[in-house]
Specification:
The complex is a heterodimer of chains A (397) and B (260). Chain A is an alpha/beta fold. Helix content of chain A is 43%, strand content 18%. In chain A, helix 4 packs parallel to helix 5 and helix 9 crosses helix 11. The N and C termini of chain A lie far apart (62 Å). Chain B has 260 residues and is of the alpha/beta class. In chain B, 48% of the residues lie in helices and 15% in strands. Chain B has an 8-stranded parallel barrel, surrounded by 9 helices. The longest helix of chain B is centred in the C-terminal third of the chain and has 17 residues. At the A-B interface, helix 1, helix 8 and strand 11 of A face helix 3, helix 5, helix 7 and strand 5 of B.
């Protein structure tokens, strides 16, 4: 049996990085090990979660859609109500606090939909750090509002023109510039991906979601949910929701991938459905790729799920059968986006709408005493213009 | 003694050019290998193009993109190198990323390397900690795993050098590959630390394009690696790249060979 290195989830994970970055991630790993159970650090983070980010987020019983769908009770975990409008701030607060402890004065981040970029720009402003966000050029166009938002917050946004000009290329570029300025720069990675310790660290900063859900549902229903569900790109909001429920074997963990125009088309981002084992962006996991190991161009209406890989812990949960991963198409996601907006008066992020799309399929097949918790990972304000374009509506501001 | 060791054992400083396979075409890659050998290249590094080369600057990124667009595949590269081996025994070293090797299949990849007498592989995204991923195949098929040492390696230098095979690739600068006007890293100090623990030869790469830089770096080491500057010549001359590259390599070989 081959010796397995640190940060493994079964065979997945690892630390596959250029030598230039190794001391930086090892330094980060040591710092994280030092602080992850440090009561002062955790208290500082808790205070920021509470006073700045608006935690705990609400767990809302969506009664109208529950009745309309006619099956299991649907609860929405309202991560969209966090400051900056998504779950991303949970992770960014944690990483930026660490960056400060490490004496770094400058943070960089990749972003797809812009949610992670906005969160990073926000916390950099709060903590007085320089911030540069790398974003695929295509995404800067799809999410123009978020680009301006980041600039308002004092960040510099660099459009990435290499490759497919989407999220994976933004990660490539952030890794490249990190290599050039590794000494003063902290790379705030946005998901449970990349080299160790990122997948573990980001999950730990996001696991507050599942912890809160557990306490909230026990208070409201006196029992655990039957299903918890979240969308998966890299997988940070899903991992955050799942983690505390992993030991509760009767709770089904469902990750919903972006199928784009369908899992049987080339225009998809459904990694578990269509990917194979590979090693990329610092980790061993599943990737959409060809038989030569060339990473596939991926597609989804959602810039945040438009990524050809998945975090290594998800790959492991899939391997051991603890979590299920299912696809939802663009069409289904847009339907869910419309449905939640009109039925509950909540406009979800198009990413989160993928999770809701599957809940809409699953709930009617379940008994009325069953419970589904859907993570509403972000709000949909950023998507309004893109959805208008999708529907052929011409908007002028 | 393997081919890499033989080249360095001659006692002269070694010039190591890099080209991306399949840019502008595999036919031109083959011709360039012959021409660079004739021009005095001691070892030739061949890049297997990757869709997402995170250690490369814009010049080699563009070359990888062109090669893949032109239909270059790993199988076609091996087929080309089988032809090459009928004509030359110049030591060849692959540079590629772990995913193209892993997904192609390590056994198949390294077996093909042996058949094409590939002396070594450089895998920028496999650091010391993860080399188990390929090491047993390297041993089984007689391919050296070339280690990289960076300006940020510090306390890792000796650990890496102690287990180094073939030659050690000292990365001259922070950042990705690409031409630089100045190199500020104290290469001499890194080389000195390496020499304390190993006799494995040392070649310096990243950012080198001029004869002055090449002379300076080869005085401090056993050889010089040049990639982006050559790939740029390929891009500028396209179908007529062979002669232009050969001329450049000849100039660099002469400069490097003048050093003691």
């Amino acid at each position: 049996m081959k010796k397995m290195t640190k940060g493994r989830y079964g065979i997945h994970g690892g630390q596959y990085l250029p030598e230039t970055l190794m001391n930086a991630v090892l330094d980060l790993e040591r710092t994280y090990e030092k602080y992850k159970n440090d009561p002062d650090f955790l208290q500082e983070l808790q205070t920021l979660y509470h006073d700045y980010a608006n935690r705990p987020s609400l767990l809302y019983y969506a009664e109208k859609i529950t009745k309309d769908l006619g099956g299991a009770k649907i609860y929405l975990k309202r991560e969209d109500l966090n400051h900056t409008g998504s779950h991303k701030i949970n992770n960014v607060l944690g990483q930026c606090l660490l960056a400060k402890k490490m004496g770094k004065t400058r943070v960089i981040a990749e972003t797809g939909a812009g949610q992670h970029g906005v969160a990073t720009a926000t916390i950099a402003a709060l903590m007085g750090m320089e911030c540069v966000v790398y974003m695929g050029k295509e995404d800067t166009e799809r999410q123009a509002l978020n680009v301006f938002r980041m600039e308002l917050l004092g960040a510099k946004v660099v459009p990435v023109t290499s490759g497919t000009m989407t999220l994976k290329d933004a990660v490539n570029e952030a890794l490249r510039v990190w290599t050039a300025r590794v000494l003063d720069t902290f790379y705030v990675m946005g998901s449970v991906m990349g080299p160790h310790p990122y997948p573990e660290m980001v999950r730990d900063f996001q696991k507050v979601i599942g912890k809160e859900v557990k306490a909230q549902i026990l208070e409201k229903e006196g029992k655990l949910p039957d299903v918890v569900m979240a969308c998966v790109g890299g997988g940070s909001n899903a991992m955050g929701l799942f983690y505390d429920f992993i030991p509760d074997k009767n709770v089904r963990l469902v990750g919903v991938e972006a199928a784009g125009r369908g899992v049987n088309t080339a225009e998809t981002a459904a990694t578990i459905a269509r990917g194979s084992e590979g090693i990329f962006h610092g980790m061993k996991s599943y990737f959409l790729q060809n038989s030569d190991g060339q990473i596939a161009p991926v597609y989804s209406i959602s810039a945040g799920l438009d990524y050809p890989g998945i975090g290594p812990e998800h790959a492991y949960l899939h391997d051991i059968g603890r979590a299920e991963y299912v696809p939802a198409t663009d069409v289904e996601a847009v339907e869910a986006f419309d449905y939640l907006s009109k039925m509950e008066g909540i406009i979800p992020a198009i990413e989160s709408a993928h999770a809701l799309a599957y809940a809409m399929k699953l709930a009617p097949t379940m008994a009325k005493d069953k419970i589904i918790v859907v993570n509403l990972s972000g709000r949909g304000d950023k998507d309004v213009a893109a959805i208008a374009r999708y529907k052929g509506v011409d908007l002028h501001e | 003694m393997n081919k890499i060791a033989e080249v360095f054992a001659k006692g002269k400083k070694v010039f190591i050019p890099f080209i991306t396979a399949g840019d502008p075409s595999l036919e031109k890659t083959e011709e360039m290998i012959y021409a660079m050998e004739k021009a005095g290249a001691g070892i030739i590094e061949i890049g297997i193009p990757f869709s997402d080369p995170v250690a490369e600057g814009p010049v080699i990124q563009a070359a990888d993109f062109r090669a893949l667009q032109a239909g270059c595949t790993t199988d076609k590269i091996f087929a080309m190198l089988k032809r090459v081996r009928k004509n030359t025994q110049v030591p060849l070293v692959f540079l590629t990323y772990i995913n193209p090797i892993f997904t192609y299949g390590c056994t198949k990849f390294f077996n093909n390397c042996q058949e094409c007498q590939i002396s070594g592989v450089i895998i920028p995204d496999v650091p010391f900690e993860e080399k188990e991923e390929v090491l047993k195949y390297c041993w089984q098929y007689g391919v050296d795993l070339i280690s990289l040492i960076a300006p940020t390696s510090e306390q890792r230098i000796k650990m890496i050098a102690k287990e180094a095979m073939g030659y050690i690739y000292v990365v001259s600068s922070l950042g990705v590959t690409g031409v630089r006007t100045t190199i500020t890293t104290d290469i001499g100090a890194i080389v000195e630390q390496i020499r304390q623990v190993t006799k494995v030869p040392i070649a310096v790469g990243f950012g080198i394009s001029t004869t002055e830089q090449a002379i300076k770096m080869s005085r401090l080491s056993d050889g010089v690696i040049v990639g982006s500057a050559i790939v740029k010549i390929v891009a500028e001359n396209d179908e007529n790249c062979v002669e232009a590259v050969a001329d450049y390599v000849k100039t660099m070989v002469t400069a490097v060979a003048s050093c003691r």
